[in-house]
Amino acid sequence: RKEVEQDPGPFNVPEGATVAFNCTYSNSASQSFFWYRQDCRKEPKLLMSVYSSGNEDGRFTAQLNRASQYISLLIRDSKLSDSATYLCAVKSRGYQKVTFGTGTKLQVIP
Amino acid sequence: GAGVSQTPSNKVTEKGKYVELRCDPISGHTALYWYRQSLGQGPEFLIYFQGTGAADDSGLPNDRFFAVRPEGSVSTLKIQRTERGDSAVYLCASSQGVGTGGHNEQFFGPGTRLTVL
């Protein structure tokens, strides 16, 4: 089983739709969680860190479920510019290396 | 301020050659990371520096790969006797470092696309 798993998609959604991605992790010692956005042939850009209580940044909401070992990203009112690959990333307690999922591709359609 | 920079942006080399990839982290960031990313995959961890020392090199695939950070700022990833399977995008990231609070988020450079013919 991979340490971090994501549905690769693609998720094709119309503009204005709400879309959610999940990411599961296998290491119960995981401590820090992140969502990154990556555009084609570009570097990953940090979208948001995921806090235990959940956090929101504009149209984006991240949640952590430690019991079931997954994190989620919800995007409301999707824009064409949200089209990208969304990578989840996990860091374990005591370590600084980050383990990434393979990413979920989102395509927002006009 | 300036972000992480990497040079060259593209490198084409022949099988068996030696290559060096350079990373200049965000000013003031003490932690530096190297990852590589193949098509359709997420970044794969290679090595992490805290200051000048390699704190975790568990991701280096074999002894052909080596990285240095002699003055605690710029880092060079060195690959000897390159193989076609080394072709990937090599990403560098930096962060403020351990003990600075928060999640120690990592910020990536634009990467070096390495092609081994």
Description of the molecule:
The complex is a heterodimer of chains A (110) and B (117). Chain A is mainly beta and 110 residues long. In chain A, strands 2, 4, 5, 9, 10 and 11 form a six-stranded mixed sheet that branches. Chain A has a five-stranded antiparallel sheet with strand order 1-3-8-7-6, with no helix packed on it. In chain A, a hairpin with a 6-residue loop joins strand 4 and strand 5. Chain B is mainly β. In chain B, the strands form two sheets. In chain B, strands 2, 4, 5, 6, 9, 10 and 11 form a seven-stranded mixed sheet that branches. The mean pLDDT of chain B is 93. At the A-B interface, strand 5, strand 9 and strand 10 of A face strand 4, strand 5 and strand 10 of B.
Order of helices and strands of chain A: EEEEEEEEEEE
Structural class of chain B: mainly beta
The helix content of chain A, as a percent range, equals: under 10%
| Global outline of chain B | globular
What does the main sheet of chain B amount to?
7 strands, mixed
Instruction: Tell me the helix content of chain B.
Output: under 10%
DSSP helix count of chain A? 0
Q: Describe the largest sheet of chain A.
A: 6 strands, mixed
